[in-house]
Amino acid sequence: MTISESLKSSLLKYKENEPLAKHSTMRVGDKADFFVEIHFEEDLKSFLNLYKDYTDLPLLILGEGSNTLFSDGFRGIVLQMVNKGIEKIDEDNEFVTLKASAGQNWHEFVKYCVDNNLSGVENLAFIPGTIGAAPVQNIAAYGQVQEDAFLSLEAFEISSAEKRTFDEPECQFDYRSSIFKNELKDKYIISSVTYKLKKASEYIPETSYHSRYESLGGILEEVAQEPYTLKDIFHAVIEIRKRKLPQVKDYGTLGSFFVNHFITTEKLKELQDKFPDIQYYPVDKMQYPALEDQSLKDAEFVKIPVGWLLEELGWKGKMIGNVGTYEKHALCVITDGPATGQEVIDYMNKMKQSVFDATGIEITSEVNIV
Q1: CATH architecture group of domain 86-244
Q2: Catalytic one among 152, 192, 256, 365?
Q3: Are 200 and 210 in contact (CB under 8 A)?
Q4: The pLDDT of residue 310
């Protein structure tokens, strides 16, 4: 029996030759041979049991497509997690524990927490994507990281269709990374994530990093008055992201294309000779990057905002055909009209080469290129 025949005989919702540009906020991509939607955990179990007979077919797991760049079509199966729901599973005097399905929209989850006066993810508002993608990327913004509130996740092993629970240490969270981007990449499918949120008092203390994070200060003064509430911070973050980042209603976009880069203080001194005004931020030992070169294990590091470098090198607002860099943020590659995935990749590679030629730094893409 062919995969097409097996899918037809199943109760799964699927399509053949599905245009991928419809399923990526970058708006590029050809067709997937098979596109399967997972609405419930039972759907995922059914699919994995079916897939055991077709493991020669490549499998791609997709959320909302807000971090996936399709270079072309996909000769295999795209599995989209669209299961939704938020469930309260525990509560005490200080905390509430929520379990959210992998296909649940992340921003809607943050809004749910804020509406219920639960603190821990409010600075992560308006980040596109799903609950299932959040721990994979270990998303972070404005002084907050999803791992701060993370408790555990449930995931199904693709090869066995068995469900396993991962706690925080097992996820091996790192800067914009986790075990699911490395050792366990393409081996598990996340079905739900559990977060532990703190019950907030009516107002956020002035000393809270949530409200005192540098980029939030000015916006908070515009949109609210002290003492600030969780909703004030939530709305301030949304306002910042709307002002700085391209919106999917206007452009094809995946948000930031590159992660910020860690360099040694010695490398910083070298760069300051060429870029006297270069921006950098100190980091503590917990933030240090994974080191391939063990000779640097005792070195001191700083974090360089790659967006600053790209803007300094003239990439902000640049366009080549219908692919370019957003006029307000040099980290954001956009499409403004018909384009191919390969055109986006070519543009991105030009940006990377430009930074390397000027600084010797090999910047790293944040998006998943398929």
Answers
A1: 2-Layer Sandwich (3.30)
A2: 256
A3: no
A4: 97
In the set 176, 177, 239, 354, the catalytic residue is 176
Architecture of the domain spanning 252-369: Alpha-Beta Complex (3.90)
Tell me, yes or no, if 27 is annotated catalytic. Answer: no
Angle at 352 between CA 279 and CA 292, to 5 degrees: 80
Does residue 256 have an active-site annotation? yes
Catalytic residue list contains 215 = no
Domain-wise residue ranges, the chain:
3-81, 86-244, 252-369
Among the four given CATH numbers 3.20.20.70, 3.30.43.10, 3.40.50.720, 1.20.1260.10, the one describing domain 3-81: 3.30.43.10
From the number of C-beta atoms within 10 Å of its C-beta (0-12, 13-18, 19+), residue 108 rates as middle
Catalytic residue selected from 147, 170, 311, 366: 366
pLDDT in tens, 43-84: 999 999 999 999 999 999 999 999 999 999 999 999 999 999
pLDDT value, residue 228: 84
Place of tokens 């543009």: 347
Token couple for 169: 């240490």
Q: In terms of C-beta distances under 8 Å and separation of at least 24 residues, what long-range contacts does 17-22 make, across chains too?
A: 18/78, 20/70, 20/73, 20/74, 20/78, 21/70
At residue 130, the pLDDT reads: 97
